[in-house]
Every structure is written in structure tokens, then in C-alpha cells.
Amino acid sequence: MKRLIEIPINRLPAEGQRILLRHEEKSVLLLNVAGTFHAIDDSCPHSGASLFAGKLQGNMLQCPAHGLRFNLDKGCPAAKGLEVRTYPIDRQGEICIVNLSGS
Q: Tell me, which fold does domain 15-88 have in CATH?
């Protein structure tokens, strides 16, 4: 069963901005980096802290709690085994769809 979040394009974050999406029990962070959208779990795998307020440098997002950095394309930090889950995004006309079924 596919789990999808549909966002109208007029609700997408502007370049350099981010929004928090909620679906059932899951929180997903949607970021706009230089016109490219990235969707990741909002929870740091190290401590569970929200990544929403993390410092963004290029394609890297730093956890505000302990400083762990994540590549938004791959979800990989400097420490193996602490990846944040990434989600594919598809645009269909006036709707952007985040697929929570897989990465």
C-alpha cells in the first residue's frame, strides 16, 4: 500500500525554506535547496531530535541537538549506521507528491 503526501505547488516551501509535513504518526521535513526539493524524516537517528531547525549548508543539514550532518540526497551522515530516511518526490501537474512507501 502506497503512503503518499500530496502538496499543492502553492504550498511548497520557497527556495531556501522548509516546511514540516505530518502523515499519520510520521513527521517529514520538506526542504527547497536551490530549487530542488528534498524530503527526509524529521527525526535525527542519533537522538530523535527534530531536524527542522537544523543549519543548512548546501546539500548538508546539521542536527541542532548534536551537530550530526546529513546529505539531503542520500541521508548519509559522517557516522555509518545513522542515516536519515529520504523520500522520493514527484510533481504531477499542480501537485507535488512525497512517497513515504520507500526511498
A: Rieske Iron-sulfur Protein (2.102.10)
Distance CA 40, CA 20 (A): 10
Count of beta carbons in the 10 Å neighbourhood of residue 76: 15
- Residues 65, 50: Cα–Cα separation, whole Å: 8
Q: How many CA atoms lie within 13 A of 92 on its CB side?
A: 9
Residues sharing a CB contact under 8 Å with residue 101, sequence separation 6 or more, in sequence order: 1, 2, 3, 4
This prediction has a pTM of 0.90
Q: Where are the domains of the chain?
A: 15-88
d(CA 85, CA 10): 25
How much is the pLDDT for 102? 61
